[in-house]
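Dear support,

Our group has been running a series of protein-ligand predictions, and this particular one with FE2/S2 (inorganic) cluster is the one our PI (initials K.S.) wants archived with full inputs and outputs. We had some confusion internally about which version of the output was final, so please treat the block below as the authoritative record. The input we submitted was:
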Amino acid sequence: MSNQIERFQDPGLPEHVHRNADVDPRAAKRAEQQVAILFLLSAAGTVLTIASYIYVKSSTFVYLPVLGRTDLQQLLLGIGLTAATLFIGLGAIQWAKKLMPDEEVIAERHEFRSEEVDREELVSTFKERADASGIGRRSLIKRTLGLALGLVGLSPLVLLRDTGPMPGEYLNKTDWAAGTRLLRDPDGQPILASDIEVGAVTQVLPELPAGVERTLENTGKDAVLLLRLRPEDFNLDPERLSWTHEGIIAFSKICTHMGCAVALYEQQTHHLLCPCHQSTFDVTRAAKVIFGPAARPLPQLAITVDADGHLIAKQPFTVPVGPSFWERNSSNG
Ligand code: FES
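Confirmed final output from the archive:
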């Protein structure tokens, strides 16, 4: 038996198989119509997006199986945008697969390296120019230039600090303080604990001290969801239980993932859902994350009642509200 390894043959290219649309004009016509239909569906998606943005009020809700109470405008925007992008992509794929030229082309590789003479010329030109600039001789210039170039990149880094306050310290401050009354949003009325029924969920804002204006910025940070469960539904440690009042519990409304408004409450399961990336928080366990990308629970606001029976905050939030992208300690909450 010979030790020589047998050379294997170049298998070459398999025989080219023509597509239906290449050989049958009727198939080509059909493919063309399919692509056109997909592009028309994409256009319809865009029309739906724009029309629902203009004509559907953002406060219109519909009840859907699985999703429950759903903002109609958001739903239509989602469907429209999905259709617009999906069908344009499908149309392009269909076009490329069925109609675009289907020839196999062999491109011979060529030498990437420059000619030796060009390479030598480049090196000598570089040396010549470097000598002419005198950088080799002028060591003072060389060093100070190195220093200047090294430092110039620092300015943008320092200026980044100006893009806003550090999120941790910014989100740590809300208008909630011990004794702050909870006001119903949007009518601004104080809330009697006895007015809230089991199963109810409502958005509240803090009563601001005289002279402090309610702005979009502080409303965003201060928004709180107030829910009432049966007290026996809770599964809380004694401290967190003492932050509730007769089954009423309050959480920051800002999702701890990326700051969307946590807007959906499933009464049967006691789950709060964030519509952006489906983080799900269990109300009975102090808004513990049970699904989704959020890294920590929704901050709980300790509440009680004043002498008139109105709900008030017992203390400010004990942890920053909102997204925790700057924070490594995911157990903080
Ligand atoms: S912002 Fe709520 S899950 Fe992403």
